[in-house]
Every structure is written in C-alpha cells, then in structure tokens.
C-alpha cells in the first residue's frame, strides 16, 4: 500500500527553487534513504512533507491515516535542544502533544506508551534523568522515543547519527533498522551514503541529477557507483 507519494514536486523558498520536478513513492514498510551532497534540499524536502514549508509546484499525496498524527519526526539536533531543561520522561511524553490537541494533561495510556518507547530504546531507568546531562547517543535515543509517541506508521529522520562516534552510530542504525522490521516505514536523511544504502530498500539521491529506485538499481547504476566506490 502506498503511504506517501510526491508528483512533479518543486520545493524551495522565496529565494528560489531548491529541488525541481521530484517524483517518488513510499509503500508501507519501506526504508527510504535520502542521500546527496550538502545543500541539495534534503531537509527542505522533509519539511515540505511535514507541511512546514509549502511546495512551489506539484503535489504530495499521503494515506488518510497519515494526515493527522501519523508521522513521527526526528529533526537535526541543535545546541538549544541539547540544553533543554527537562527530564527524559517529560521530553518523550511531549511527543503526544500534537495528538492530544495540546490538552494540559496526558492520559495513563500515553504515559505507559512513553515508558515502553523509552525501554525500547534501551533507556530504562533514565526516566527522571536530566536530558542535558545525557551523552549524544542517549539524547538521540530520547528524541527517537519521542518521535515514536507520535506514530506507529512512519518516521522521518533528519541525520539521526550526526555527531555520534562510530560505535554509537552503528547502534543507532541498528535501532532504526529494528523499528523498520517491526513494520514502521522509515524515511531517513543521511550524509553517509554507504551506511544508508546498507539498510535501505529504496534510495532517493538528490543533487545535480536525481535518482529514485531500489537499492539494487542504485548499486548497479553508474550514478550510484560514483558515490559508493568512486565509479570503480
């Protein structure tokens, strides 16, 4: 079942178009890696899918179940986020804010789901821990737990391993891969083409030219070979 598709999409800002005439589709359970050079519009695409930026041209179609509270989002970390004055549990629980209509309380069920997502990310026992005192990898796990509170269907991840050391990076990739195996669709931006391709089943490469296809098609294409092994 197609969950999300973009048809002849052009995106950008008042200063100009960043990506032009982009078309691709995502089925339930897919793992899409969005790769390409810096500044080519990968994060802009994610923000457009989320409705934070209006498309300049074209159309984004999504399954009705995604139109309200069906997408979880893990943005790139910022210095401000790292200094956020709250506990692990408070941050994870805030993932329900957009779902509950910003009511001033959380239900017992929501609190239980938040605890379950914390446990799923290997953070059991850290519920009361100050977020700003966590390591970079632990912070990302908290934010991923928070995103899971927003959806059971699809996750949009913007450079989820940025700034993490190699061991923690691999752990994060495995966590994301396990979520995909559980049935959650993954759309992930990554600057690391080799690692992203390793886990994904579909690739969207944005740059001077745009490629969209399966991992096998990407690896066998002249386009993919240039970025995977320098064209060898």
Protein model, in words:
By secondary structure, the protein is α/β, with parallel strands linked by helices. It folds into two domains: 1-70 and 156-172 and 187-232, P-loop containing nucleotide triphosphate hydrolases (Rossmann fold), CATH 3.40.50; 80-150, no CATH class. Helices cover 35% and strands 25% of the residues. The strands form two sheets. Strands 5-6-7-3-8-9 form a six-stranded mixed sheet, sandwiched between helices. It has a three-stranded antiparallel sheet with strand order 2-1-4, with helices on one face. Strand 1 (2-13) and strand 2 (16-27) form a beta hairpin. Helix 4 packs across helix 5 (136-148). The chain is globular and about 50 Å long.
Q: How many structural domains are formed by the residues?
A: 2
How large, in whole angstroms, is the Cα Rg? Answer: 18 Å
Total of DSSP H or I helical runs spanning 4+ residues: 9
Fold-level CATH name of the largest domain: Rossmann fold
Question: Which CATH class of the largest domain applies here?
Answer: Alpha Beta
Using DSSP, what is the number of strands?
9
Shape: globular
Average pLDDT score:
88
CA distance, first residue to last residue: 37 Å
Enumerate the strands of the largest sheet in spatial order, edge to edge or round the barrel.
5-6-7-3-8-9
């Amino acid at each position: 079942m197609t969950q999300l598709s973009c048809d002849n999409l052009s995106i950008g800002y008042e200063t100009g178009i960043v990506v032009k005439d982009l078309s691709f589709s995502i089925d339930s359970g897919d793992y899409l890696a969005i790769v390409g050079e810096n500044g080519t519009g990968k994060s802009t695409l994610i923000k457009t899918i989320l409705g934070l930026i209006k498309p300049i041209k074209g159309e984004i179609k999504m399954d009705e179940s995604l139109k309200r509270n069906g997408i979880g989002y893990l943005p790139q970390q910022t210095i401000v986020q790292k200094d956020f004055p709250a506990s692990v549990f408070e941050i994870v629980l805030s993932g329900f804010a957009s779902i509950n209509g910003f009511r001033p309380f959380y239900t017992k069920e929501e609190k239980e789901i938040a605890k379950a997502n914390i446990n799923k990310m290997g953070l059991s026992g850290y519920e009361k821990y100050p977020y700003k005192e966590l390591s970079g990898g632990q912070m990302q796990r908290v934010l991923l737990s928070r995103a899971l509170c927003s959806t059971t269907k699809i996750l949009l991840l913007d450079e989820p391993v940025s700034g993490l050391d190699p061991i923690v990076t691999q752990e994060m990739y495995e966590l994301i891969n396990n979520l995909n195996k559980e049935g959650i669709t993954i759309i992930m931006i990554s600057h690391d083409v080799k690692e992203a391709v390793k886990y994904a089943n579909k690739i969207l490469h944005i740059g001077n030219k745009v490629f969209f296809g399966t991992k096998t098609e990407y690896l066998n294409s002249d386009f993919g070979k240039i970025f995977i092994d320098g064209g060898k």
